[in-house]
Automatic annotation (TrEMBL):
It comes from the Eukaryota. The gene is PGBD4. Residues 18-34 have a biased composition (Acidic residues). Residues 129-456 form the PiggyBac transposable element-derived protein domain. Residues 1-77 are annotated as: Disordered. Residues 8-17 have a biased composition (Basic and acidic residues). InterPro entries: PGBD. This is PiggyBac transposable element-derived protein 4. Pfam families: DDE_Tnp_1_7. Signal peptide: none annotated. Residues 60-77 have a biased composition (Polar residues).
Length: 456
């Protein structure tokens, strides 16, 4: 049986001409003039394995503008400037951007820098242990000992129960082991002076310490059916979050970023981030002091949320971490994973952050920056600014608290010489206050300890 012959070019041309002559009538009775096809906007994060699709049912709410935002009369003065729509705007009312001029004022103001203070009293005779117990209170030691004893009872093991003082000894041994490393765990109890640690040997026996480390439990053994993925550590995290908040007043400048706790085992919480120093581990969102790295708040990332969630993952993380801020004189900085136009226009705190140019509602810059140090500013009538600056590569920044002004920065050239360039004030300020979480990671890594443990 022969294969069916395809249409020749002449036959195809004839069919197309016949179709052009036919009129297609639409029934006006079923034509809905208000109908609009839904548009979808895929948003990707450069440093996360999650991709979120946002269907445009969540239009950006209009903020109540303060005296710092552009009013309608101010935008009228920009009538000679073309209105620049968002590059990825969706829906019937995209955010309009204007070239910045002298009338622009940001929506928020940058707070004056002030030094945070301790919120508990310490006398001259206070020791390191007294400070530690403010962060890691005795009530938490009691909880851990109770949960561990319940676990031992459930397993039916005839082991002498533990108590809060013994739990404190085990935690102290872990801290000593983290900065005093030896080849094997048992070497800490060695009689060899070059290996054994006197403090650990005098505190607890080897077998008892090894047994408790393998049986430590931080939650009630009976796990509820609707418990979260982080059930076994939730009580500890909740306690630490409360003590972090109570022990220190809020600093003026803080940063929000992700931290990775190294973990090599199997867990549904484990994330893989190839561009990070710690590539595999448990991701923790943190809000830290920019100068000291003090952790004010943290949340463990347990995977993609289900249900009717709104906004990007970065927006939800920032909103959650800022709920616990006490006071208003706090400025935030975060990177492009978190930054969006919607976040900048709705956040209750002054903020600055790098931005991805393909993100929703980001303006479409038309001019090309050709010389290092050149910049361009676009603003909205609600007081949000988008700055684009050419350094060694192009940088884009969003801010709700900076004016369209320049600062001076020094850059090292290829021949080793220093050269001064103009830089938007927002970018200079971002570089100044962004490193809080990285500083916290740097200090925590001093006490890093790898050890094997059994699955709960």
């Amino acid at each position: 049986m022969s294969r069916p012959r395809g249409l020749t070019n002449e036959e195809i041309k004839k069919i197309l001409e016949e179709s052009d002559d036919e009129d297609i009538d639409l029934d006006d009775e079923i034509d809905d003039p208000d109908f609009q096809f839904p548009t979808h906007n895929l948003q990707y994060s450069s440093d996360s394995d999650e991709c979120e699709m946002d269907i445009d049912h969540d239009t950006i709410p209009q903020n109540t503008k303060n005296s710092g935002a552009l009013s309608d009369t101010d935008t009228a003065s920009l009538s000679s400037v073309d209105e620049i729509p968002s590059a990825n705007a969706s829906g019937s009312s995209p955010i309009l951007w204007f070239h910045a001029d002298s009338t622009f004022q940001p929506r928020m103001t940058i707070p004056a820098e002030s030094s945070p203070s301790l919120l508990f009293n310490l006398n001259r005779s206070a020791t390191e242990l007294d400070v530690f117990l403010k962060i890691f209170p005795k009530s938490l030691m009691i909880w851990i000992s109770q949960c561990t004893n319940q676990r031992l009872e459930k397993l039916g093991q005839t082991i002498h129960p533990t108590d809060p003082s013994e739990i404190m000894l085990v935690l102290g041994c872990i801290l000593v082991m983290s900065y005093n490393k030896v080849p094997k765990f048992s070497h800490y109890w060695s009689s060899n002076p070059s290996l054994g640690n006197v403090a650990i040997k005098n505190a607890i026996s080897r077998d008892r310490c090894k047994m408790l480390l393998s049986k430590l439990y931080f939650a009630e053994p009976e796990k509820p059916e609707n418990a979260s993925k982080t059930y076994y550590i939730d009580e500890v995290v909740s306690c630490l979050k409360q003590t972090f908040k109570k022990c220190r007043s809020e600093s003026s400048y803080q940063s929000i970023d992700e931290s990775m706790a190294k973990f090599k085992g199997r867990s549904s919480l484990k994330q893989y981030m190839p561009m990070k120093p710690v590539k595999r581990g448990i991701k923790i969102w943190q809000r830290c002091d920019s100068k000291t790295g003090y952790v004010y708040d943290m949340n463990i990332y347990s995977g993609k949320e289900t249900g009717g969630v709104q906004g990007t993952l970065g927006e939800r993380v920032v909103s959650k971490l800022t709920e616990t801020i006490r006071g208003k004189d706090v400025m935030l900085a975060f990177d492009q994973f978190f930054t969006s136009v919607h976040l900048m226009e709705t956040l209750k705190f002054p903020a600055v952050g790098t931005c991805i140019k393909t993100r929703k509602d980001v303006p479409n810059f038309t001019t090309k920056l050709s010389k290092r140090g050149e910049a361009e500013f676009l603003v909205t009538k609600n007081g949000t600014m988008c700055a684009r600056w050419l350094d060694s590569k192009e940088v884009m920044m969003l801010s709700n608290c900076h004016e369209a002004k320049y600062a001076k920065v020094n850059r090292t050239m290829r021949d080793g010489s220093k050269e001064e360039f103009e830089c938007p004030v927002a970018i200079e300020f971002y570089n100044k206050i962004m490193g809080g979480v990285d500083l916290a990671d740097q200090m925590a890594n001093v006490y890093e300890l790898d050890r094997k443990s059994c699955k709960w």
